[in-house]
Design goal:
The chain has about 550 residues and is α+β, with helices and mostly antiparallel strands. It is built from 19 helices and 18 strands.
């Protein structure tokens, strides 16, 4: 909490090179890239970081195999290259995963044709992953007994990648990197207006954590303004009186979290009744099933009964379970919108007729207005995030902003020497033996993945006080030292920030289980001090 309070004061005390509205993946990578390159950056988000589209993804990092059908080969090549780059840059956080595809009889393409497509996809991806293979009906059943082959013609297997932890946690890595490089960031700060005067943006904002009657307007000044508001980009441009060629259409995607339906760490892949790819994705000891694809006009999107039924109907048709999945099996839900980019007709301000809107890709567009030092980011996805950071840096450089360390490597995990020192210290203190009974995963690997070089501080906490190495919230794998770390460094403002975004506890445990978990109250006291009871009540009143 103190980090946020200090940053609120700093937001008003100087003129920044760049102000960024939005702390999802686009805003986070922009802040990380620009602050690392030497720009003085401010970033605010109306809610928590990664609290919209960036926390509702499938956790997949993929090269866009479905865009082969629409012959967007350039986009597939770009996404495959971006996927490979992420795999190389974040080996502890992103891993290759196999997609196990089962095809129904009578599907619009035969399995051999689609296998050839998977080979072509592998070629476009520069053979960076394991090779695809074709699968017979008997092979599918032998390797994945949960898959029903009653209507199967066989299938194939190919590779993409996935985030080991949740998507919002990955986004926060970039927010934290921006803070480490001098960026001043704050969550729950809503921009209410902005004007461009004499070469400078003057932004007014409100602290969402204060009662509206008591809140004083915050004033932020910056040379350049970046709108990285994701689905709300169009609405923010209206507030700031910016007209753009690009706009968004919205597609709602819903996933359901249930107990694990298969022990293997691969993505079971089908084509749903509407013809879209449909997945069972591993999420620790749970499975994430979906997705839907529904046109929506209003935000935020919400899960409707029809969404749940669509997913349950489709997955029960395609799995051979002893007991079909039911509504009561749903542990948690994910519901986000895909901001799909469309262009307006020149001079008309109207959106083009896009024909089949479901065919729109998740490509991004960065639109600049040099005369007003303004950048809007439209669309995008996790896979392409590093490209967004680089393109934003190019755009601000064209606006005349000096970036003294323009060529610095601003992304990626810490050097091997730092990693090796962390694991050496962990072995010397027998960390994994001390915590083996408390965890289903080697604790040293998990701490490194989540915190990188900062994990060395956690080792020191455990050496100083062995109780820091104990699991605090029973039923989860979060140690007491991790809660203290979150309180110091992760700007946890509400309990949902920790349970849903800094961790994935709320994604894999029912609300009632969380409420009764031993250690939850102590965790709240660590995070919020005297406000612990209030924050607990707020969370469970809203869940």
């Amino acid at each position: 909490m103190k980090l946020r309070e200090n940053n609120l004061a700093k937001l008003q005390s100087e003129t920044f090179d760049v102000a960024i509205i939005g702390g999802g993946i686009n805003g986070a990578v922009s802040a990380s890239a620009l602050s690392s390159m030497g720009a003085r950056v401010a970033l605010v988000d109306a809610a928590d970081f990664a609290s919209s589209t960036s926390q509702e993804s499938s956790n997949l990092v993929w090269g866009g195999i479905k865009y082969l059908e629409t012959m967007e080969l350039g986009l597939v090549s770009k996404l495959c290259k971006a996927r490979n780059h992420l795999l190389k840059s974040y080996p502890a956080n992103i891993r290759e995963i196999r997609f196990f595809v089962n095809l129904d009889k009578g599907f619009r393409f035969g399995r051999f044709f689609l296998y050839l497509g998977a080979l072509f996809y592998w070629l476009i991806g520069k053979f960076y992953t394991k090779a695809p293979r074709i699968l017979s009906r008997s092979q599918i059943k032998a390797e994945e007994g949960a898959v029903s082959i009653d209507q199967s013609q066989g299938g194939f297997e190919y590779s993409d990648a996935y985030l080991i932890d949740n998507d919002a946690r990955f986004v926060f890595h970039f927010i934290r990197a921006a803070i480490d490089h001098g960026a001043i960031v704050a969550n729950y700060v809503k921009v209410t207006g902005a004007t461009f005067t004499n070469g400078e943006w003057r932004i007014t904002a409100r602290d969402q954590m204060q009662p509206q009657s008591d809140a004083q307007a915050l004033g932020i000044r910056a040379r350049i303004l970046i709108n990285a508001s994701g689905p709300w980009a169009d609405a923010v441009n209206q507030i700031t009186s910016i007209e753009t060629r690009h706009h968004h259409l919205f597609s709602k995607g819903v996933h359901l979290i249930v107990n694990r339906v298969t022990p293997d760490k691969r993505v079971l892949t089908f084509f749903a009744d509407d013809g879209r790819l449909f997945f069972v994705i591993p999420m620790g000891n749970k499975s994430c099933i979906g997705t839907t694809d529904t046109r929506v006009e209003n935000l935020p999107a919400r899960v409707e009964p029809a969404d749940r039924q669509f997913i349950l109907d489709n997955i029960n048709k395609r799995l051979d379970l002893a007991v079909p999945l039911r509504l009561e099996d749903i542990i948690a839900e994910r519901c986000g919108v895909r901001p799909l980019v469309v262009s307006a007709q020149a001079g008309k301000g109207r959106k083009k007729d896009t024909g089949d809107w479901t065919a729109l890709s998740r490509k991004h567009a960065i639109e600049t207005q040099l005369e007003r030092n303004h950048i809007s980011i439209f669309g995008g996805k996790l896979t392409d995030c590093l490209n967004v950071g680089e393109e934003v840096a190019d755009a601000v450089a064209r606006m005349g902003l000096d970036l003294p360390w323009r060529r610095i490597r601003w992304y990626g995990e810490a050097p091997a020497e730092v990693r090796n020192e962390f694991f050496h210290q962990a072995r010397l203190m027998e960390l994994d033996q001390l915590t083996a009974a408390e965890s289903s995963e080697v604790i040293s690997k998990r701490l490194w993945r989540r915190y990188g070089p900062s994990a060395l501080e956690l080792l020191e906490d455990i050496r100083t006080d062995p109780e820091m190495g104990e699991v605090l919230i029973k039923g989860t794998e979060y140690l007491r030292c991790e809660l203290y770390h979150a309180a110091r460094r992760e700007m946890v403002t509400c309990l949902a920030d920790f349970l849903r975004r800094r961790s994935k506890i709320a994604l894999i445990e029912r609300t009632a289980t969380i409420a009764s978990a031993p250690g939850l109250k102590e965790a709240c006291h660590i995070l919020f001090g005297d406000l612990a009871e209030q924050k607990l009540k707020e969370y469970f009143d809203n869940h």
